[in-house]
Amino acid sequence: MDLSLSTRTVGDRTVVEVGGEIDVYTAPKLREQLVELVNDGSYHLVVDMEGVDFLDSTGLGVLVGGLKRVRAHEGSLRLVCNQERILKIFRITGLTKVFPIHTSVDDAVSATD
Amino acid sequence: MATVELRFSALPEHVRTARLVAAAVARRAGVDEAVLDEVRLAVGEACSRAVGLHEVNELTTPVRVLLIEDEKKFSIEVGDEAPHTPAGRPAESAGRPGAGEPSRGAGGDEEDDMGLAVISGLVDDVEVSAGESGGSIRMSWPVTSAPVLS
């Protein structure tokens, strides 16, 4: 399965809905999307990963890159994920301490700290 | 001899194929269903790393994946042909200027390290070796049930 991406605005947040597999082949598309959003002035991003079937370290690298970009503008990058197999990768790499991970888009959109 | 041997051009689009094949052979070998996600992820990481090393070193040779079924364990060996320095870093990329973010990330040192971190976090039995003529990552998992016949 390829990667699907769609964006929508909720208040001052931009929600990026990601579906499919994020790996060495598809991760550049996600990177482009995040770079484009930041270049267009969207600094508060919510990446909804509920539709993601597979995530590897290349995908993690892109998310970390996105976080660095929004932080340069005092922005935020929040993740939405409930899937144990995806969460496990964040835990193994210690990235649960780096990304705020929410159980729903509503929760992520209304989070302030 | 390996149960299944796979060789693919060192291109990112083929890594998914390697993941699918490895998971299918692991399932057949009797690797626990609960562990198959880990097999898929670990072989994907190892193949992504190998593809990155081939790209950085401009190698046209394929990446090699050996899937080996034993009585008590299932092993995967992913081999690259990138020349490594004694420290384990690819010879050419070690001196590569770190000009911003790599266009594709697979060859980036940071992401290479993250890939290895994921593998060592996932797999208990893993061996990384590297020499002048290439490197390999060998991983194995216990076989917990009788092989699937269907």
UniProtKB/TrEMBL annotation, chain A:
Q: Cross-referenced SUPFAM superfamilies, in alphabetical order?
A: SpoIIaa-like
Q: Please provide an example of a Pfam family that matches this protein in its UniProt record.
A: STAS
Q: Keyword Phosphoprotein, does the record have it?
A: yes
Q: In the UniProt record, does the keyword Phosphoprotein occur?
A: yes
Keywords carried by this UniProt record: Phosphoprotein
- Which Gene3D superfamilies does this entry report, sorted A to Z? STAS domain (3.30.750.24)
Q: Which InterPro entries match?
A: Anti-sigma_ant, STAS_dom, STAS_dom_sf
Q: What does this protein do?
A: Positive regulator of sigma-B activity. Non-phosphorylated RsbV binds to RsbW, preventing its association with sigma-B. When phosphorylated, releases RsbW, which is then free to complex with and inactivate sigma-B.
Task: State the similarity comment.
Answer: Belongs to the anti-sigma-factor antagonist family.
Would you tell me the protein name for this molecule?
Answer: Anti-sigma factor antagonist
UniProtKB/TrEMBL annotation, chain B:
Any coiled-coil ranges, and where? Answer: none
Pfam families reported for this sequence: HATPase_c_2 (PF13581)
Q: Which UniProt keywords apply?
A: ATP-binding, Kinase, Nucleotide-binding, Serine/threonine-protein kinase, Transferase
Q: Where is the Histidine kinase/HSP90-like ATPase domain?
A: 8-141
Looking up CDD domains in the UniProt record yields: HATPase_RsbW-like (cd16936)
Q: What is this protein called?
A: ATP-binding protein
One Gene Ontology molecular-function label: ATP binding
The segment annotated Disordered runs over: 77-116, 131-150
